[in-house]
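Lab meeting tomorrow. Please check the following:
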Amino acid sequence: MKIALLPGSYDPITIGHYDIALRAAEIFDLVVIAVMQNAEKRYMFSIDKRYEAAKASFCLDDRFRVIRSEGLLAQLARDIEDEYDNAKCVLVKGLRNASDFTYEYEMYEINKSIRSCETMFIPSQKEHMFVSSTFVRELIKYGEDFSPYVPQNSYNYLKNN
């Protein structure tokens, strides 16, 4: 079994994240969306709300599993492989621009050195290149409509909770 592991803070999940997940599902048997918690980071939404919003986006499709995690990404990949009888888990990262690539390549090197964890980069569709969680949080903060920038089920969850 080939598993894509898509880690992120998803604060909140965006249409760009959603698109990368859908494209990964065309390649892998299972896509695991890992809503990560980093004690050093400040979030707009709690991990529970980020998890539920991400889960709402994929709830009707059994090609996806949404989980929460607070540990090392390389260890999470190992745990998922063990859970699925030593399946192959590949980290999948979306790239919007050269800055994303520089950062994600550094993370690739770290994960590779810790655990020989492979990473696949999927470039954003051009219509999603400007969409980021930071941008969406700004819209929310100022009471602007953010519905075009998040998956519909996630939008409904965030508006109602």
About this structure: The chain has six helices and five strands. The mean pLDDT is 93. The longest strand covers residues 88-95.
